[in-house]
Automatic annotation (TrEMBL):
HTH lysR-type domain span: 3-60
PANTHER family, A to Z: HTH-TYPE TRANSCRIPTIONAL REGULATOR YBHD, NITROGEN ASSIMILATION TRANSCRIPTIONAL ACTIVATOR-RELATED
Gene3D superfamilies: Winged helix-like DNA-binding domain superfamily/Winged helix DNA-binding domain (1.10.10.10)
Name of the protein described by the UniProt record: Putative HTH-type transcriptional regulator YbhD
GO CC field: cytosol
Cited SUPFAM superfamilies: Winged helix' DNA-binding domain
Pfam families hit by this protein: HTH_1
GO molecular function, one term: DNA-binding transcription factor activity
Length: 294
């Protein structure tokens, strides 16, 4: 026996709002429609789920259970639809997420050139590395650019490249004359930083003692401050290819940071059944990283 989804929705809504009038208003139907639906549901279940009194109708204990189980069925149906639609979308398009902005900068650069024909959908909202596996299993992404090499029964990873952090310092400071600096060398300094930098936020805050970070939400504000002030700021071997991040007319010197923590390996993590769809994109990213960023 199959029960129509709309009957289950009426039951769940009635349990939530408590009256036929409120149920009808919420579902944007007439009260007689709800009444007929509830009667039909009782007939199909062949049990009494409503206690009908003069001017009042409530759920029986069986009705309470029915409403609870109805919610489970609705959730399962919604999950079924969502999963199938995402799966279909990811086979026709390539949706990409990341835990840091750098790899996405490279991807956008390639999207306007070598990958111009690919149906790529980039999510600019950076995710927590802890969520990558769950997001992939839920078919929310074709692949995720992450700092973790994930290998499970369903997921595998491909190395894409290494992002290397450097700091831009006023040319008249002693540190600017060094071939490289350590995080400890930067102790106590105040930095201008783009707010949404993903995993680099934790790295810099943990590694540089007593530092202050002045986060900027807007790239334009970040550019103006760095152009007309002596505050140090960070760049990487990837960010240099983004023209929007170029600072014109500044006198800072770019100095590499020597610590191992300033170098992050990035991998593309993906469901194994997606490999065929994304392989050419990953190969293009790999080649571009090796050619331009190493």
């Amino acid at each position: 026996m199959m029960i129509d989804n709309y009957l289950l929705e009426e039951l769940v809504t009635f349990k939530k709002y408590g009256t036929l009038a409120a149920t009808a208003e919420h579902l944007m139907v007439t009260q007689p429609t709800v009444t007929r639906g509830m009667q039909k549901l009782e007939e199909e279940l062949d049990v009494e789920i409503f206690d009908r009194q003069p001017n009042r109708i409530t759920l029986t204990k069986t009705g309470e259970l029915a409403a609870k189980e109805a919610q489970k069925v609705i959730d399962q149906n919604n999950s079924f639809i969502d999963t199938v639609q995402k799966y279909d979308y990811n086979h026709k398009n390539v949706r990409i997420g990341a835990v840091a902005p750098g790899p996405l900068i490279l991807l956008r650069h390639l999207k306007s050139s070598k990958l111009a024909q690919a149906k790529i959908d980039i999510d600019d909202n950076l995710m927590n590395p802890k969520d990558v596996t769950k997001e992939l299993l839920n078919h929310n992404y074709s692949f995720v650019l992450t700092n973790q090499e994930i290998m499970t029964d369903d997921i595998e990873s491909r190395f894409i490249g290494t992002e290397e952090l450097s700091v831009n310092l006023n040319q008249f400071t002693l540190l600017a004359n060094k071939k490289s600096v350590s995080f400890v060398d930067l102790k106590g300094l105040s930095f201008i930083v783009i707010a949404d930098i993903g995993i680099w936020k934790d790295i810099t805050e943990k590694q540089i003692p007593d530092a202050k970070f002045l986060y900027q939400d807007q790239q334009e504000a970040f550019r103006e401050i760095t152009k007309y002030s002596d505050f140090p700021y960070f760049t990487t071997n990837i960010s240099k290819i983004d023209r929007k991040l170029e600072i014109e007319g500044h006198d800072q010197i770019n100095v590499p940071i020597s610590d191992d923590a300033a170098k992050v390996d990035f991998y593309a993590a993906y469901l194994k059944n997606q490999k065929k769809n994304i392989n050419s994109i990953l190969k293009t990213m790999n080649e571009a990283w090796d050619k331009h960023l190493n």
